[in-house]
Design brief:
8 strands
């Protein structure tokens, strides 16, 4: 607040400038800006909560894809399967074509092959309320909402010649979540060589 003193014939008179505050219009505009900011923050908070709720399903999909890739490497490393069989059934191999339910490994011990359906659907087991794994209150999670596609394809060099000692691997795990209306997809792409 500014004041000025003006002297006049021995009398001092103090003149004060008018005090000013916020006008009603300024208050309304600032409240509108603050409301927009808070609503945006709440939207981000809701998105973060939805993300955390589906993180377990995302992790399961990632593990199922890694399991399939390890199975392909195991097939290559075993003496029971030749390199020519490390591909999809459509190409003379042992791995199933298309999207398939998540089954346990069959008699051959390799995930994603034709004998897996006999072994039954795979489930995950988590510790129950006591937090100890292997007790009677453990929780079993069925993997019925998951499907896995293993695609093993030939690799070509820059001149268009097939590289017979190398294959491309694309593993797609498709699953549904309670939050999303459409199925989610996790894709793992890699290569596998004939040599260990």
């Amino acid at each position: 607040m500014a004041t000025s003193i003006i002297g006049r014939s021995g009398n001092s008179r103090v003149r004060k400038q008018a005090e000013r505050g916020f006008s009603l219009l300024e208050v309304v505009i600032s409240m509108a800006v603050l409301t927009v900011g808070l609503v945006s923050l709440l939207g981000v908070f809701g998105l973060a909560m939805a993300s955390t709720q589906t993180s377990q399903q995302d992790m399961i999909a990632k593990q199922l894809a890694n399991e399939a890739l390890e199975s392909i490497v195991t097939a290559r490393n075993t003496s029971q399967v030749s390199w020519s069989q490390v591909q999809n059934i459509a190409n003379g191999g042992i791995f199933m074509n298309g999207a398939n339910p998540i089954y346990l490994a069959g008699a051959d011990g390799i995930v994603g092959t034709a004998d897996d359906a006999v072994a039954g659907e795979q489930t995950l087991t988590e510790p129950g309320p006591d937090g100890i794994f292997g007790t009677s209150d453990d929780v079993s999670i069925p993997l019925t909402g998951y499907q896995r596609t293993i695609l093993i394809s030939p690799v070509y060099d820059s001149q268009g010649n097939q590289v017979t000692t190398l294959r491309g691997v694309n593993i797609t795990v498709q699953y549904t979540t309670t939050q999303a209306k459409l199925p989610k997809t996790y894709v793992l792409s890699s290569f596998i060589s004939q040599y260990r």
